[in-house]
Amino acid sequence: DAGVTQSPTHLIKTRGQHVTLRCSPISGHKSVSWYQQVLGQGPQFIFQYYEKEERGRGNFPDRFSARQFPNYSSELNVNALLLGDSALYLCASSLMDSYGYTFGSGTRLTVV
Amino acid sequence: AQSVTQLGSHVSVSEGALVLLRCNYSSSVPPYLFWYVQYPNQGLQLLLKYTTGATLVKGINGFEAEFKKSETSFHLTKPSAHMSDAAEYFCAVKPGANSKLTFGKGITLSVRP
Q1: DSSP tag of B28
Q2: Interface touch A43/B42, C-beta < 8 Å
Q3: Which one, of A101, A103, A99, lies nearest residue B51 by Cα?
Q4: Which of A68, A70, A88, B88 has its CA 20 to 30 A from that of B61?
């Protein structure tokens, strides 16, 4: 079975631009979460979605938004990119009412 | 609120030596605890988790961890380090099944030949 897949793997954007990151969960997993990992730090929670509804939001500005589609895949959108948004963005999927998260390999975003 | 403290940023051991990576947590409710490993340019891989039951938890690659409520600790150990264990290790806590993970800052493990 395929794991959590994220695309693209790497991208470079210019300050002020917009970016969309994509995530496909493990088949059967209906919950998707997004985390931001800045170099040298642990991942920070951004969003959790379940059945297309937002179930949790971390301490991130409104420039960050996400959505989940009927097939449970998800997009993370970031507007007006700042240099500080440069990070590894990780997607994790899980069964609801489950303790375990499975992470994807991430999207490395570089803002220049 | 939950928090995780991983003291130190780097641990270096010789191949075959004991690995001990420390993790202390703060949680307002009984926690669920996790250790993840991250190899360069990769995502996070679950090593082991504690939810309920036995406080000594065995994971993959010979790692284990013990939940000590009185010490609010969940230290990760491996009796004999292997070169392939060199990676970044993250301890994480969450208060419930559907809640977010809160990670520590991570510890880099180096293994000397």
Answers
A1: S
A2: no
A3: A99
A4: A88
For residue B75, which of B97, B104, B53, B102 has the smallest C-alpha distance? B104
Q: Give me the pLDDT at residue A1, please.
A: 60
Taking residues B33-37, what's their average pLDDT? 95
Check residue A18 and give its pLDDT: 98
* Closest residue of chain A to B106, computed from CA coordinates: A42
Task: Give B10 to chain A, closest Cα distance, Å.
Answer: 11
Side-chain-side CA neighbours of residue A111 (13 Å): 18
Strand order from edge to edge, sheet including A64-68: A5-7, A19-24, A74-78, A64-68
pLDDT band at B1 (very low <50, low <70, confident <90, very high): confident
Q: Cβ contacts of residue A105 below 8 Å, gap of 6+?
A: A6, A9, B42, B43
B99·A97 Cβ contact <8 A: no
Q: What is the mean pLDDT of chain A?
A: 93
Say which of B42, B51, B104 has its CB closest to residue A105: B42
Angstrom CA distances, A35 to B27, B61, B64, B110, B112, stand at 20, 25, 26, 26, 32
Confidence grade of residue B99 (pLDDT, cut at 50, 70, 90):
confident
Give B17→chain A minimum CA distance, Å: 26
> What letter would DSSP give residue B98?
T
The pLDDT of B49-62, averaged and rounded, is 91
Contact A101 B45 (CB under 8 A): no
The mean per-residue pLDDT over the stretch B75-104 comes to 92
